[in-house]
Amino acid sequence: MSNHLLVAAIDFGTTYSSWAFSFRYDYANDPTKVSAKQWQGHESSKGPTCVLIKPDGKTLHSFGFDAEAKYAELIEEDENKDWYFFRRFKMMLWKQKLNRNSMLEDENGRKLLARTVFALSIKYLKEDLWVVSNDRIADTVLPDEIHWVLTVPAIWDNAAKQFMREAAEEAGIEPDMLTIALEPEAASLFCRHLPVEKCGDQFSLASLRAGRQYLVLDAGGGTIDITVHEVTPSGGVKELYKASGGAWGGTKVDDSFESFLACLTDKSVVKKFKEDHLDDYIELLRRFEVKKREIDPDKDTKMVMSIPLAFFTTVKKRLHKDFNKVVKKSTYTNSVFLTGDKLKIDPIVARSFFKESTERTIALVKDVLRKNENRGVEAILMVGGFSESKMLNKAVKQTFPTLKIIVPDEAGLAVLKGAVMFGHEPRNITERISKYTYGIALHPEFDPINHPESARFTDTDGVDRCQNFFDRHVVAGQSLKVGEAQSEETYFTKPSHTSTVQIEVFATENKTPLLVTDPGCRKVGQCDISMTGTGGGREVLVRMIFGGTEIDVECTEKATGKVSHIPIDFLSYVAFV
After folding, report:
1. By C-alpha distance, which of 142, 203, 179, 155 is closest to 5?
2. Are 256 and 353 in contact (CB under 8 A)?
3. Which of 139, 159, 431, 533 maximizes the CB count within 10 A of its CB?
4. Rg, C-alpha atoms of the chain
5. Which of 158, 165, 157 is nearest to 223 (CA)?
6. Cα–Cα distance for residue pair 563/428, rounded to 1 Å
7. What share of the chain in percent tops pLDDT 90?
8. DSSP symbol at 515
9. CA atoms within 13 A on the CB side of 533
10. Domains (range + CATH), the chain
11. What's the whole-model pTM score?
């Protein structure tokens, strides 16, 4: 258990972000007693992931609701062009060729260093939490008494995790005071402590005994994350099936709504409306956010939305027709009506906004449950803000009628509060599944039985060797016990080696790669090991510890007994996805 006075978590989401914390003594008495931020002036524990940066490109002006409000003022006064306004930018880290110089484009098309944008956002949340937590106990919390937890989707690669860690460090969080938490795992830990009455049904995860299995469906704004967990004898959980998912979260519904507006009018109308009236565009999406939570598969009620006046004006300018006439001549002439400034949308059309997201999510859950290792799953835990959608709820319940479906109260806060609990007791997650086969590039003596002839070469000492041999440390699908080394190899230096030995790490989905040049293999990182002396024959024991949320490489120099924990630099290479 953590010995820090306070554990603080930041849930940096695609659409909404927030923080939460709990003191060590509170956690010991009631693990679910977690304090979350309340955004002033808004009945919400989460604020929009929006950041406004001053024209110098270095100074944060505001975050969340304040950033939206201030930027709306700047637009109204026509002073917004030199400012940087970013919203829903987290998805930039999903399946991108990410490095330290990656740029992020704001709503005006201006670019800033991505790490600057993330670091300023994290810094705001960090400092805001620190002020509030100090208010609770009269300024007695010191920075070195807080352990920080930062959440990331389980489907993210190592480069994206490292990017978030470095952004957090730039925001002022010390490396040894920071833990990266996987979102579905955090939610799972939180829900394991909830009583039946807070689980949205007559069933609780806490009632599952050792050996019982459940699927975690983490439906956030940007991503859908799916993992399978099994309860351990200690009451913790272990991962049974590697995380899978995609970018089919709640923002996909927003995208469908925007496509609907474009089809109703014209693509150029929506584009121009967004460019010239971003404040009204954001307000429209905010109204839709409220409405989409009300869309019910069992009710034939029209969705009624107020449309900003600026949208009417844009339609008139671009199409030279009144909005009402455009609607009547569209393909939605019999299902969408305009009354005053209100758009009345037929329930069938409103439900169609969820089609892509729900269908792809259901298909993935089906695929995961078909796997032999997941045959024992008896419940689906739905967490994340999008899990509160009645449309997604109904689709899951209809498709999997034999499984218990658990949707906890405030499903959107399960990840955030669970991250705090993870910070207190990270060992409650006991095992994880490796997504990839990881190994090191070597040039061992050639073995005609195990090495392909095409890889044979003769070194300067006249020894036949195998070039680019993939020395496996972990195999894809392997169960990894947290805190234990999954591999232990002794390497010897060559005569040409100086005081630093470089180890290159490769990854592939293939379970039996021979060479690091095989199709599908990627160099994902490297680490440099400092050693005493020079020349060949020096020994270094390399232990790779993969069970954590980040890979730890432990190197022991045999001659001196010196132990080093070497970070793998994943950001110097193309991210492995």
Report:
1. 142
2. yes
3. 159
4. 26
5. 157
6. 27
7. 54
8. B
9. 14
10. 6-186 (3.30.420.40), 250-352 (no CATH), 434-566 (2.60.34.10)
11. 0.88
